[in-house]
Design goal:
The complex is a heterodimer of chains A (317) and B (253). Chain A is an alpha/beta fold. Chain A is 38% helix and 27% strand. Chain A has a six-stranded mixed β-sheet with strand order 6-7-8-3-9-10, sandwiched between helices. In chain A, strands 2-1-4-5 form a four-stranded antiparallel β-sheet, covered by helices on one side. In chain A, strands 12-13-11-14 form a four-stranded antiparallel β-sheet, with helices on one face. In chain A, α3 packs parallel to α5 and α9 packs across α10. The longest helix of chain A has 16 residues. The two termini of chain A are 34 Å apart. The chains are: A alpha/beta (317), B mainly alpha (253).
Chain lengths: 317, 253
């Protein structure tokens, strides 16, 4: 559906050039939900904006649904739906008018625009809201109108930039259902997210991005399998971390270890069985951890392993 | 054909918003009407210095039409800053619609609103102050002012795209609008002033538009003011329109 090679974008800023995306390659296959996962500033949105022709790449090629990104930008635009991060509705306009205008800018006849708009309102649980002003809708409803605006010309490829950011948990789960049912009806979806649970729950395949590069790629399960074993996390004072790791290494068969602020993460084959010997050994050395958790590997651990820092840290940065 | 269709869609969507809230179009008229009613009568007192037999209202009303055209269009960019922030511009730019049509539809709507406002203002002057403009001259004045307004609103949209901030837009517009207003002879004819002021005014293209509008209002179609003013107005509008179109076609806008 999409084939990208060597795509790069450098922004010129007052403090010098910033390489937002550093020559990435990837494919999107028909009928899948592909997630671009990474912290803010990883280059996800820039990538999405490049493959939707909103900004020009400084290098690289891409073909989107058979249209060449550089030679046929209009062709690309007519084949995709794009739902931006910050919303796209005019507060004062009526929901139905916005949908019809958008459909007609894609060249649909008035009758087709009205029919598509009304079908989408029903499909996205927005029945009866067509006559409301956009500002009268709830956050979740408005987000679904944004998505309807991206779908109103019936593209078979849609980009969703951070679709659930700022939504309450219920609206979020509800939107996931809608995104899945879109995929089930044959729409290919590319979305960006910095939520691991979202990538895990929703995406068929994930590209992990960091600092403008793709640092890992695979299905959620494949990515998690990369880190075999479980993670034991200890809360421990930073000055004791090195000694604690040494003690743990004597007592257990450690795969890897990582210190992160007040936490030490230890990867072992069987986390449950390792807890008691580990605590004994630490007690013998006079170290008492503040808390201890055992986790099956999550995408957060994948991110941690691949980039050396946790996704939540990236968010704060 | 497709271009016209797309332009029409954007034009209609924006006009519809005005029709839904026509009050704002009228509120936009309060300032020029206040000038007409509270400042205009002062001109009757100085009418003598404009030349014998001059009807001050034929001088003043075209100036006020120009003022509506100038201010209405220069501040059009504020609406676009909102549209940028709300993601509406980006949403429309990701459609196959021509970027020129996205701009032109908005500019045409600004022209229509201006012409409606100018007509209302002129009717008020006709009723209250017995203004009797040449009918054809009045229509041509509307067109002339609409053309300059189209150029100014294109430039304002370009500025909105470039600055993306109400604050910067407001500072630039305040800086530009006062000299443009004072040196265009909108309020009083520049012929009342000293030579150096008249020279400065001649450098302001809008002063030629105002001169042309005044000649048209009194039905003096053969006046050189009409030809020079039309030429200057159309050229300026074309240049500003091109700047707007180029900015709109650029990426990242």
């Amino acid at each position: 559906m999409i084939s990208v090679s060597g795509l790069a974008r450098t922004f010129t800023t007052k403090t010098g050039p910033v390489e937002a995306v550093k020559g990435i390659d990837f494919q999107v296959y028909e009928g899948e939900i592909l997630g671009l996962l990474g912290p803010n500033g990883a280059g996800k949105t820039t990538t999405l904006r490049m493959i939707s022709t909103l900004i020009n790449p400084t290098a690289g090629e891409a073909t989107v649904s058979g249209a060449d990104l550089r030679r046929d930008p209009r062709g690309v635009r007519s084949r995709i739906g794009y739902v931006a991060q910050g919303g796209s509705t005019n507060e004062e306009e009526l929901v139905l008018d916005e949908l019809i205008l958008q459909a007609r800018l894609f060249g649909l006849s008035k009758a087709a625009a009205v029919a598509n708009a009304e079908a989408l309102l029903a499909a996205l649980d927005l029945d009866g809201l067509g006559g409301r002003k956009c500002k009268q809708l709830s956050g979740g409803q408005r987000r679904r109108v944004d998505i309807a605006l991206g779908l109103v010309h019936q593209p078979n490829l849609i980009y969703l930039d951070e679709p659930t950011t700022g939504l309450d948990p219920q609206s979020r789960a509800n939107l996931w259902d809608h995104i899945r049912s879109l995929r089930d009806r044959g729409t290919t979806i590319v979305l960006t997210t910095h939520y691991l649970d979202e990538a895990d729950a929703l995406c068929d395949r994930i590209l992990v991005m960091d600092h403008g590069e793709i640092v890992a790629e695979g299905t959620p399960d494949e990515l998690k399998r990369r880190i075999s074993g479980d993670v034991i996390s200890l809360e421990i004072a930073p000055e004791l971390a090195a000694r604690a790791i040494a003690v743990a290494d004597d007592a257990l068969d450690l795969r890897s270890q990582l210190t992160e602020g007040h936490h030490v993460h230890l990867t072992v084959e069987h986390g449950d069985a390792a807890v008691i010997p580990l605590l004994h050994a630490l007690q013998g050395a006079g170290i008492v951890p503040g808390s201890l958790t055992v986790k099956r590997p999550s995408l957060d651990d994948v991110f941690l392993t691949v980039t050396g820092r946790s996704l939540r840290d990236g968010d704060r940065a | 054909m497709i271009f016209l269709n797309e332009t029409g869609l954007i034009f209609w969507a924006h006009l519809r918003a005005n029709l839904r809230n026509p009050l704002w179009v009228l509120i936009g008229l309060t300032q020029p009407i206040l000038y007409l009613v509270l400042f205009g009568p002062l001109l009757e007192g100085v009418a003598g210095s404009m030349g014998a037999g001059t009807d001050p209202w034929l001088v003043f009303t075209p100036g006020l039409i120009m003022q509506i055209g100038l201010f209405g269009s220069m501040f059009a960019g504020f609406a676009m800053v909102y549209e940028l922030r709300a993601g509406i511009i980006e949403r429309q730019r990701v459609t196959p619609a021509s970027r020129g049509a996205l701009l032109l539809g908005r500019v045409l709507k600004d022209m229509v609103v201006l012409m409606v406002q100018a007509t209302i203002l002129t009717l008020v002057a006709v009723v209250l102050f017995d203004l009797r403009p040449n009918p054809l001259g009045f229509v041509l004045t509307l067109i002339l002012v609409a053309i300059i307004a189209a150029g100014m609103s294109s430039a304002s949209y370009a500025l909105a795209l470039a600055t993306r901030s109400e604050d910067s837009l407001a500072s630039v517009l305040n800086m530009v609008s006062v000299p443009l207003l004072l040196l265009s002879g909108i309020l009083l004819p520049m012929t009342l002033g000293p030579g150096w002021l008249q020279t400065l005014a001649r450098l302001n293209p809008l002063s030629h538009t105002v001169d042309a509008a005044r000649a048209l209002f009194r039905g003096d179609f053969g006046s050189s003011d009409v030809y020079i003013g039309t030429l200057v107005t159309v050229s300026l509008a074309l240049v500003l329109g091109l700047i707007g179109a180029r900015t709109f076609a650029k990426e990242n806008a």
